[in-house]
Structure formats: C-alpha cells, structure tokens
Amino acid sequence: MTNKSLVAAVLGMFLVTFSALAQDASELLQKGLHLQEAAGDVDGAIVFFRQVVNSAASTNKSLAAQAQYQLVLCMLQKADRAAAQKELAALENNFAGMRDLIEKARKLLPGTASLLSEPWGENESEQLNIKRDGVATSEYLYYSADAYLTTLLESNRKQTQIRTPDAPELQAVYLRWELKTKRSERSIQLLADRDTLQGAKRGRNEGEGTRSPEYESDDALGDSSAAPFAGPATDAEESVFLLRRLPLAVGFKATIPVTSNTLAPVQMEFAVTGIEAVQTPAGKFNCYKVAFHGIGQTFWIGVEGARPFVKWQNSAVEAELVKSWGPDKVLDSIVAAATTGGIVSINMAAEPGGIASARGSFWNNCCNNALTFTYRKRLTPQNEIASLLERRLDEEIHSIRIGGRNGNYNTGLKLRSGSLQERSIGGNQAITGLLDYMEKDVPRTVFVALIASESSILEIWANLYTEELGTFRWRFEPILDAIRIP
C-alpha cells in the first residue's frame, strides 16, 4: 500500500468513527430529552446528558453544549438550585462560545428579585383555548399588552406630546384580559405604568390618584361556567403579566396583590414548584410551574424567549396556548394602499385587546364622509370563519342601532335585501353588504366589508350618502381587492 493510500484509509476510518460518534451522541441526547420531557425521569435523563457532554465535548461542541444546558434544567427540576449553579458554571467555562445557550441558562437562575424587562415587545396578544374535563370547547382566554400611543401616526403623537408634555401615560401599557364562555364575554382592562404594572397616574386634568381597571361583561344573569377563572386568572392589574416579569426559579415563592373578586387588593401567595415541558397547539415549551395553592390554580410560564403564558389549570378546567401574536404593521400597509388609492385624512391608533383602527374620510370630490378600518387579532378555526363573519355583522348592526357609528342612525337601519355577498378578498373569506337608513329625511347607506382568516379579522365601514354609493364602490373596489391579512 502506498503512503497516499495509507493516509486515505486512515482518514476514511477517522471520518467514519467521527460520524458514528456524532450519531451516537445525537441519539443519546434524544433519549435524554425523551426521559426528561415525556417520561418525567429526570435522573435517567441526567445519565444520558452527561454521556453526551463527555463523548461529544471535543467532536461536537454544539451538541455537548445543548446537553450541558439540559443538565441545568434537570437540576432546577429537582429543585437543587446549588447543583444548577454548578452546571451553569460548567456551561460557561467549557462552552464559552455558545453565548445564546449561556444567556438562556442565566435567565433560569436570576440573582435578584427585581422585575425583569418586558418580554412582550411593543404589542403582544395570546389566546388560550379552554378545555373542560379534557374536552375542547369554543371558549377561550385572551391576554394582550399594548403600548400606549405607539402606533399613532407620528403627527398625532407629536401633537399629543405637545398637549400633555409630561403625561406619565406616554410610558404606560394597556393590559387586557378577556374570557369568552358559551354564555358570556367578560374583560378587564388597565392602563398601567410600565415599570410597576400598577395603574398609571392620572393626567393633570383628570384628578389625583391612579387609574382603576375597567370591567365589561354582557352577563346579566350570572354565568356559573366562568366561576373557575376567579382569582389571578382574571386579574389584569397583576397576575399573568407580573408573573412573566418576575425572576422565577424552582423554589421561588412570593405574594402578589390580587384585585379580582375582591373589594381591595389581597396578597396571594404562589410558589414555583418545578420546570416542565408542555406541549400545546402553539408548540412545545419549557415552563415554570407556578402554583397558587390557596385557590387551586396553576400556571405554566415559559422559561425562555418572551416567557409566554403557556397553560392554566383549575381542577377539571384548563386552557392552553394556541396562538401568540407579536407586533405587526398589517393596518399600516392597508392604510398605505388606501391613501395610494386617493383616500384622504386617515389617522391610526392602537386600541387594547390586540386591536388597531384607522379612521378618516374619502376623496375630496366624492363621498366626503366617515371611513373606518378595524383590525382584530383573534384565532378562529377555518370551519367557523363563515359563522364568525355573520355574527360580527349582526353584533355591529345591533351596536349601531343602540349607539351609532360615525353618525346618529335611527332604528330604521336595515340590511338591504340582496346586498349581502359572500366573497374571497386577498384569498380570505369575506362578506360585504349595505345598510340603509334615513338621516333627517336624507337617505344614507353604510357599506360594510368583513374579511377573516384563521388568525385575524378586518372590518371596514363606510358611511355614505346613498346617491354616492355607486361612485364609491367604483373607486373603492380596487383598494378592497388589494387588501391582505395574515
């Protein structure tokens, strides 16, 4: 055998051996993850993770670092904080180049009790679908955190700052909780200080003190199916939003003030009892398990990234994360298309509850009246979208009759016969229709278009003089056809 052949043979054997080692280490890691997450055998998982660290430290640093990170998680699951600190030190010393894993592990072992930074960015919404006795329902919990004023047009923001230059609410955040059961809808909303998550201070012209939560409900008789959600699950002033900013760790205990179902805030104790892997329709998450033993409620809060609220449970009722929305600029692009099409005077604003809206008027030489876009983040199964569109139309017609929208409508408002059309707009299901009414003996018409996907709904309303309807439709249809929602 020549020297070249010998070198090639040795190199080939080395590559085969290296490939086998990498494959073996990967298989060991997967076995460890299975024991840790699916079987709940933390001690058995530790054995496999240590084997990966020892066998792959020199051949596959990334794989070995992942196993070392899992060892940190395992020690926290065993409630052995000191051992977790040692495994973290090993991760920092032996895998210094793996900065992302090191930072993730450090967040699992915070050194102070101060609030962490906001994990939700500018705006965020989460929907958790409800199960009763393990059976899925059409009910859901909905949480949102929306920055105050952030999505106003720049000109509007500047005017607001000029008008109230030192208003503390400019550094505030809207916190909102919603519960939809089969019988009722409820919500609590609070404009809170960003730093403390307590009610924001009132402006200079609003009197002294702080803002209080705003409560809304359509339940006049008392919905017993909503009872399991009393307590922190319904507390927009604290609870979930605060839990996501606390330095949680296994063994961490604290009390937080809870205002739900009480006349005054009550200090309620909770404890972090472990770390668990939780599989939901939105994905798999490593979570802190947070127990409020006094009311029998348990929360699962993600340990990484945006620290999402992943799961909630109280006896036979539970809710799990199905969708999370981050900041988006969907309405910006819709407004841009409208203004390109000649529509004038559109102003945008963020609203609590994952809602953005734009209001303005039409072309100067036509239909000079009110136009409204409302974009809502809501999760709807594909087979329920058609009924959602019909329900939203009925709800808004009822709302217009009792309260008015951009004008004083009378009870003569009705859907024009034959005007309701089922359509596809931007690849999504939609309906359009015409609502007629009289205003001081002048015939007027409201054009409505509702567009829905599985994750959002866009509602468009245009209040017109009836004689201008044809011209409006001629000019507005190209804008409508260009609209896209996710």
Describe the structure.
This protein has 486 residues and is of the alpha+beta class. It has 3 domains: 3-108, Alpha Horseshoe (Serine Threonine Protein Phosphatase 5, Tetratricopeptide repeat), CATH 1.25.40; 123-325, no CATH class; 330-481, Protein Transport Mog1p, Chain A, CATH 3.40.1000. The chain is built from 10 helices and 19 strands. The chain has an 11-stranded antiparallel β-sheet with strand order 5-4-3-2-1-11-10-9-8-7-6. Strands 12, 13, 14, 15, 16, 17, 18 and 19 form an 8-stranded antiparallel β-sheet that branches. A hairpin with a 2-residue loop joins strand 17 (428-439) and strand 18. Helix 1 packs antiparallel against helix 2 and helix 3 (61-77) packs parallel to helix 5. The longest helix has 37 residues, at 3-39. The termini are far apart.
Largest sheet: spatial strand order: 5-4-3-2-1-11-10-9-8-7-6
Q: What fraction of residues sit in β-strands?
A: 25-35%
Query: What number is the mean pLDDT?
Result: 81
- Low-pLDDT sequence parts: 3-22, 150-169
Largest β sheet strand count, sense and barrel closure: 11 strands, antiparallel
- Inertia-based shape: elongated
How many domains in all?
Answer: 3
Q: CA-to-CA gap between the ends?
A: 65 Å
Number of helices: 10
Helix and strand element order: HHHHHEEHEEEHEEEEEEHEEEHEEEEEH
Structural class: alpha+beta
Overall number of strands: 19
Helix content: 25-40%
Q: Which radius of gyration do the C-alpha atoms yield?
A: 28 Å
